[in-house]
Fold:
Amino acid sequence: MKHKEFSVAPMMDWTDRHCRYFMRLLSPSAMLYTEMLTAAAIHHGDRDRLLGFDAAEHPIAAQLGGSDPGLMAEAARAAAGFGYDEININVGCPSDRVQSGRFGACLMAEPELVAECFRAMRASQSAPVSVKTRIGIDDQDSEAFLRRFVDTVAAAGCRKFVIHARIAILDGLSPKENRTIPPLNYERVFALKRDYPQLTIVLNGGIETTAQVEDALEHVDGVMIGRQAYQHPYFLAELENRFDPARRLPRRRDIVFDMLPYIENQLAVGEPLNRITRHMLGLFAGRPGARAWRRHISENAHRRNAGVEVLMEALDAVPMAA
Ligand SMILES: Cc1cc2nc3c(=O)[nH]c(=O)nc-3n(C[C@H](O)[C@H](O)[C@H](O)COP(=O)(O)O)c2cc1C
Structure:
């Protein structure tokens, strides 16, 4: 396989720092994106809690949401101060809450404003700034609409676009429906790369197999994987191995052992066990013992004073060969 970028998508409530630490053990090279952090939250909130991460998580990108260039610049500078390798602007999220703040996918209709945010964010710090967007919104589902957006933002200096290859319907579909109902259109993204060979174009949406990744990389510079990486995290290890056969496939149970020192440290600072283990439920997905693994953790990790023994007991329920 050609050596190109692959990444794990920003996913609210999913790709928090514990999840990213776990994914990093499965994938030494994937770029990991944070959940979306709003510029307003960073302005008002506890920055250590919002932006803090473990050095093992590199390479890591902070995804920011907002449309006020001043606030976005401040948020980008704060993220850069924490050492993020890339800052990403969310122009793809369709939720109502996000629309009322005028950010997310509705900004596809305002490319000049995104360009202004980009310039301010670039000027405020030195990490590269990328944009994650959709192929269109509502009835704006044409190559011309996508091109106008990309033209305007690229003219401001943006070199990397991650494209979720379906439109967002801003009225009437929930965020979840917006990730399944509008059809995928990879060809639109491949055409974009042909039109803008100088830009880094990353394809996102519906990727579930290494064969799909290989096909996509014939046309674009990278792939971003969301739900499959979360629900079947071992897929990340399989991808690494396909990219670079020298990276041997790890044993799933060794990944659990590798998590233990991190978990012990987190428990010691008062983090409840289940905040970490909830991201590990899919580790044995599709293998014998998967259900027992999930069940033991789900039933026990939330108990007061639960510790790493819960994971050891859960492993006992999984056949050695899994
Ligand atoms: C639970 C969940 C939360 C998400 N949160 C975000 C987010 O914060 N920012 C964003 O740009 N996309 C978000 N997305 C969309 C994903 O980044 C990705 O674009 C989408 O899931 C399509 O990729 P996939 O088919 O590989 O999952 C979220 C998706 C899921 C499933």
